[in-house]
Protein: Cell division protein FtsA
Organism: Caldanaerovirga acetigignens
Amino acid sequence: MARSSVVASLDLGSSKVCCMIGEISRNGEIDIIGYGVTPSTGIKKGNIVNIEAMVRSISEAVLQAQQMSNTKIDSVLVGISGSNVTIVNNRGIVAIPRSDREIKPHDVERVIQASRIIAIPPDREIIEVIPKQFIVDGCDGIRDPVGMIGTRLEVEVSIITGQLTTIQNVIRCVQKSGLEVEGLILKSLAAKEILLSEDEVDMGVALVDIGAGTTEITVFRGENIELYNLIPLGGDYVTNDIAIGLRLPYSQAEAIKRKYACAAASLASDKPEIEIHSIGEASPRRISQRDLALIIEPRVQEIISLIHKELKTVNYKEMLAAGVVLCGGGLLHLRGALEIAQKMLGIPVRVARTDMYGFDHTFTVALGLLYYGSKNRSFGDRDEVRDKSALSFFERAKRILREYFLG
């Protein structure tokens, strides 16, 4: 395969930092050639709280990926999320001045640039502009106007903005790691590429990413982002409740949660088979899985109730024909969590999975960023090249990720 371009992605999470490197050829194929995963030590609730710690985590993940791929990278696509992210709608209009009136790719670029002209507060910055539909001479519902005939091209867009200082801190961390930021992409947009089908998106679906420190909620309907919000609660809060309730060091509470936890007391065993050694006690004691579940269940219900509250703002029972898709490592490993979500939300809920790595979501955002980035790079002019890239991407991704999960 003739080497044409290398694309790299960086997922900065509350529990881990993941870097992934892919190589794209001019015929549209992409190979995943390296990845690195390290614990995240400088971010809480989606916000960077320690620049130097974050730089160390990024540098280690990037080093692992570069060593595996035997490739040095100089820029990355970075996933971004946070309670400071907002989405506003706008419209752009341009004239098609040529005598043949055929809409060219640069006309699409012009109209999208026109849509970026919007008054935003000085403490905010545009992260990305997402076209919802194009309109040619009053005919709407067009996804790709290139090649059509018209005199006026319009576009309706969703403009994703973020707090300037938050964006600058992310960029600063990446730059101090020796890299440049090639682009900032909303994490849920990247995850959508991997976890949601086109039918689900067209029907209306909520992607809910329950992570370690936050829960990210994004409602997609067609080309629209109907809702985006971040709740500052995640799986770490369950661990914290266990640590306080049983007087355990945090690391032991996390280990017990991973091995024994159940989200619903009704599903838990009454047998006292979990040995714990509480702080301040001379000898260990045994508790049951039900004792543990009685601590966990209220927090799980609280997180789901906050998700329910957010979804109610968009009349979700009518809008979300495809239901809710849960992802992330915060709660989904807890037996009974899915059943609680289905009962409390009252609509279909499924756990996200892929053919590449099942229900583990370590690489979801990093993979999505690579795919999102490869689709938007211009190695060819037509969509069939991109379609081939998509097929090749997923087939090749399976091979390298099997090594991570099986080896």
